[in-house]
Write a structure and sequence with these properties.
The chain has nine helices and five strands. It is an alpha/beta fold. It has a single domain, classed as Rossmann fold. Strands 3-2-1-4-5 form a five-stranded parallel sheet, sandwiched between helices. β2, α2 and β3 form a beta-alpha-beta unit. α1 crosses α7 and α7 packs across α8.
Length: about 230
C-alpha cells in the first residue's frame, strides 16, 4: 500500500508521517507555499524530514491563495494572537481559542491542499493521503475533524478512479499523546517546526507554540527541536 503525505514540518504532520511509514510505502511529501509567515522554515525543515525518511519532496506554490488570505498567518499587517497555557485550558472561555483560530484561518486551505494531493495520489497509484489532522485542534478547526475526513473520502470516491482515501492517524489524539506516539515512531521532531512565525527560534507565544510546549511538558520530555537549538 502506497501513500503521499502533506508535510508542513509541524509536530502533527511529522508525527503522522512517521506513524504511517511504519506500515505504508510513502511515495512523496508535498509542502505548500501559500505565503505563510513560516514558509521558509517549513520548507527547510520539511526537506530535512524527507531526507530522514528517504522520500521525495515537492514544494507547490499557491500564490493566489496568499492574495485572497487576509488573516494574520499570511497578512503581516495583522497581529498573530499571543496565548498562554491558561488560555488553551478546557476551563478557559471558548472564545479565546475560537478567536485565535479565526485570526490564522486561510480560506479552504485544507480543501485546496487535499484536492491537489488527490491528483498526485491518483497519478502515482497511491491509496492514501497522510495528514496530521488531530483531535485537539478539531475543536476550533472543523477541517481537522473526523467528519471532514469522511466527507473528503466520499468526494474522492467520485473524483479519483482509484478511490484515494485520507489517512489521519492522529484524528482522535490530543497533542500530548501525539508527542508520545511520535517518539515511539522515532519521528525526527528535532526538525519539526510548529511556530506560526518564521524566525530563527520559535516565538513560544502563538497558539501552536503554546500547545506544543504543553504537550512536551505533559509527556515529561524535552522538545528535541529546542534541544537542537540550544534553548
Amino acid at each position: 500500500m502506497k501513500a503521499i503525505t502533506l508535510l508542513s514540518s509541524g509536530l502533527d504532520s511529522v508525527a503522522a508521517l512517521a506513524m504511517a511509514a511504519e506500515s505504508l510505502e510513502i511515495e512523496m511529501a508535498i509542502t505548500f507555499d501559500y505565503g505563510q509567515r513560516a514558509v521558509q522554515r517549513e520548507t527547510e525543515y520539511s526537506r530535512k524530514v524527507c531526507e530522514y525518511f528517504g522520500i521525495g519532496h515537492r514544494v507547490i506554490s499557491l500564490d493566489w491563495l496568499a492574495e485572497i488570505t487576509h488573516t494574520s498567518l499570511v497578512n503581516r499587517d495583522e497581529e498573530i494572537p499571543a496565548l498562554s497555557v491558561e488560555d488553551i485550558d478546557e476551563a478557559a472561555p471558548a472564545n479565546i481559542t475560537e478567536n485565535s483560530a479565526k485570526a490564522v484561518w486561510v480560506p479552504n486551505r485544507n480543501g485546496v491542499m487535499l484536492n491537489i494531493a488527490g491528483s498526485f495520489a491518483e497519478s502515482k497509484e497511491c491509496n492514501y493521503i497522510v495528514v496530521g489532522f488531530n483531535g485537539e485542534e478539531a475543536g476550533t478547526f472543523p477541517d481537522n475533524s473526523f467528519d471532514y475526513v469522511k466527507a473528503m473520502d466520499c468526494a474522492f470516491s467520485y473524483s479519483t478512479q482509484n478511490g484515494v482515501q485520507v489517512l489521519a492517524p492522529l484524528i482522535e489524539l490530543g497533542k500530548t499523546e501525539i508527542v508520545k506516539r511520535a517518539l515511539e515512531a522515532k519521528a525526527p521532531l528535532e526538525y519539526s517546526w510548529s511556530c506560526y512565525h518564521g524566525g530563527e527560534l520559535p516565538c513560544g507565544e502563538c497558539e501552536s507554540c503554546v500547545r506544543r510546549a504543553r504537550a512536551f511538558k505533559n509527556a515529561g520530555v524535552k522538545d528535541p527541536l529546542l534541544e537542537r537549538l540550544g534553548i
